Amino acid sequence: MTTVTTRTIEYAADGLTMFGHLALPAGVDRRPVVLVGPEGVGLSDVERRRADALAELGYVALAFDLHGGRYMGDPEEMLARCMPLLADPDRMRGIGHAALDVLRAEPRTDPDRIAAVGYGTGGAIALELGRDGVDLRAIATVNGLTTGRPSETARIHCPVWAGVGSEDPIMPPAQRDAFIAEMQAAGVDWRLVVYGGALHAFHHPPVDHIVLPGVGYHPQHAQRAWRDVVDLLVECLPVAD
């Protein structure tokens, strides 16, 4: 285990002041970078811990903010902000690019070796960065099998890994099929893992507030999905290039 240094990074995006969580591995050398996007409720300790875990593996990691430092535990409030955001690829890309700018300004960052990992809304933003032609080594999206502008999907030039629960009503089979069709038509190197019996946000530990119907934690699949994400990074973004 390496010594990890963390700090909060303040930056502007989507008309808000955002507060990202930056995690740095031990040393002074440049390292490959992972952008970590949260579920629609916003940045929480779950994503902060994932960024820290990635730094322990040797990556520079930034868990980015969605809502100007707010965590939206009220489902109605969260949907009121996230649904228009998910319908606006340019806004999603703006949030993603602002976070990438923070990473690129970090002296420990290797700007030529970046991956994006996102959950739910954060996963949709990771995909939009790929569709916008950002030079990424890998994209991973959990619960975020969103489709975009089909004419732009061919701009994704890295492997895409996606994970979803078989019982997820927010990302049902029709949405999975649309995602697969888009990736396939664009010639993207894609993979989809369907975790049997899992609901939406199956990776996220239980919370102490009301959640949307169809949301639920599955501890075994949460661990498996994390291992799958790490395996993708080992394959496409090794710490020692």
UniProtKB/TrEMBL annotation:
Ranges annotated as spanning the membrane: none
Stored InterPro entries: AB_hydrolase_fold, Dienelactn_hydro, FrsA_esterase
GO molecular function: hydrolase activity
SUPFAM superfamilies: alpha/beta-Hydrolases
Cited Pfam families: DLH
Ranges of residues in domain Dienelactone hydrolase: 20-235
Alphabetical keyword list: Hydrolase
Entries under PANTHER family matching the protein: DIENELACTONE HYDROLASE DOMAIN-CONTAINING PROTEIN, DIENELACTONE HYDROLASE DOMAIN-CONTAINING PROTEIN-RELATED
Family: Belongs to the AB hydrolase superfamily.
Protein name as it appears in the record: Dienelactone hydrolase family protein
The organism of origin for this protein: Streptomyces tropicalis
Taxonomic lineage of the native organism: Bacteria, Bacillati, Actinomycetota, Actinomycetes, Kitasatosporales
